[in-house]
Amino acid sequence: MSSRQIPRNLFRLFLQGLLILAPISITIFFVVSTFQWVDGILPNLVHNLAPNWIGVDQYGSPRRIPGLGFVVFIGIALLVGYISPSFIVSRVVDFAESLLERTPGIKFIYSTVKDFFEAFAGSKRKFDKAVLVSVNAPDVWQVGFITQEELHEFDLKEYVAVYLPQSYAFAGHLYFVKRDRVRVLTDISSADAMKFAISGGVADVEEQLKQA
């Protein structure tokens, strides 16, 4: 091996190792960061409500048992989900929602966050109908999701609202397009279509369909 090939081979090995380590490291970092953030909600909340109850550590931060806050948060979420159909709880939730939706400033934040979460989960999911849509040119198609089937409030009878996610980002664009420029994807799940669009088309959707 010549001296000129050594740096090139080292760089190739570095890239090969990076391709293996980067996805694993980023995934672990995201999971750990989310866990720590959720786990810290309970101690911070208890410390703000009752500063002398749990005390502080040597650094002045609220004392906590690792994992306890996360378990309590999950338990509270399960409990709220379980009792939410009851008459009394539903009335309380409806009252709180109506109060927040009538409060200036808070109304915009609350309604936006609520609609965002309901778009991905629950009975009002919006990103469950994957489509191919032609927006920029007749022979160019993009992966999108129908979010509204009817647009009468915009005086557009033959149009639907289609959201187009951007690759490697959580942002996207909303378009009003005619129905004849939209093709519903029946052989690809909405989750696979979203992953394919966000990954810039590198996700192997066909392999997943064969395994299904």
How would you characterize the overall build of this protein?
There is one protein chain. The chain is of the alpha+beta class. The protein contains eight helices and five strands, in the order H-H-H-H-H-H-E-E-E-E-E-H-H. A five-stranded antiparallel beta sheet has the order 4-3-2-1-5, with helices on one face. Helix 1 (5-39) crosses helix 4. The model is unreliable at 207-212 (pLDDT under 50).
Shape: flat
Tell me the distance between the termini. 47 Å
Spatial order of strands in the largest sheet: 4-3-2-1-5
Radius of gyration: 24 Å
Mean pLDDT: 77
Individual helix count: 8
Give the total of beta strands. 5
The SSE string, one letter per element, is HHHHHHEEEEEHH
Number of domain units: 3
| Estimated structural class | alpha+beta
- Give the percentage of residues in beta strands: 5-15%
- Low-pLDDT windows of residues: 207-212
Helix content: 40-55%
Largest sheet, in brief, is: 5 strands, antiparallel
Summarize the structure.
The chain is 52% helix and 13% strand. With 212 residues, it is α+β, with helices and mostly antiparallel strands. It folds into three domains: 5-39; 87-125, no CATH class; 130-211, no CATH class.
